[in-house]
Amino acid sequence: MSEPVVRRARSAEAKQAREQAILDSARALGHRHGVRDITLTDIAADIGMHKSALLRYFETREQIFLRLTAEGWREWSAGTRAQFPDARAATPHTVAQVLARTLVERPLFCDLLAQAPLNLERNVSIESARTFKLAVLHEVHLVAAELRRLLGLDEQQAIDTIAMATSMAGALWQMANPSPHLRALYESDPALAHALVDLEPQLVRVLTAYLTGLAVGDARNGRPEAGQEAFR
After folding, report:
1. What is the pLDDT of residue 9?
2. Contact assessment for residue 200 and residue 100, using Cβ atoms and an 8 Å cutoff
3. CA triplet 140, 16, 124: central angle to 5 degrees?
């Protein structure tokens, strides 16, 4: 059976629709198979497009997934801010629960959080990297403002909290989702059972301990803006 022929988009609307189709395909494939294993060829085949044609819309596979990572930050930021408790009910534990829950609810975002610094940011143009970083920083400041309001954190503490939550979610998600062969090994050997991470409870424990420590001790030292370096 011959491969379907997709005509080149001519209008701005058609180009935007084609880009969205590519992003939708990458998102679906990433959900099913994991971001690391998806290639440009996979995405092109999924939407019936030649790889060379796909490259008219995105420079690399990394640019596609970096766009999805920025989208994930926007969705997580909005979802998290909507679920934060009332200021009167805010405690380190209740805030940690929201941060952990909203991350775990977004498995593709957790996967992308790990992949972004490892490889996605390393194979795109400077302009693409700049656009991504600015988009992330905007969402970080929105969430940080809520953390400051709810827990009285300073700006550095709030941004550091977000950096810890998202970086741990990315790393722990990889551990919580091993390959089928590794999962079978861990489940068959009690000595390796610890390798199967229960993501949400572990995130809640660590973030609660961190936020409680900030509330108990005076962690306000160093440069006021130093916490932003994690997102530069």
Report:
1. 53
2. yes
3. 55
| Cβ atoms of residues 161 and 151 within 8 Å | no
Report the distance separating Cα 110 and Cα 103, nearest Å: 7
Residue 179 reports pLDDT greater than 70:
yes
How many angstroms separate the CA atoms of 1 and 5, rounded?
A: 12
Question: Residue 218: is its pLDDT beyond 60?
Answer: no
Separation between Cα atoms, residue 63 and residue 26, nearest integer Å: 11
User: In the block, which residue shows the tokens 């700006």?
Assistant: 155
d(CA 132, CA 102): 21
| CA distance linking residue 171 with residue 190, whole number of Å | 23
What's 3's DSSP letter? Answer: P
- What does DSSP assign to residue 5? P
- The answer to whether 176 touches 198, Cβ cutoff 8 Å, is yes
The predicted-structure confidence for 71-95, as pLDDT tens digits, reads as follows 999 999 999 999 999 988 899 999 9
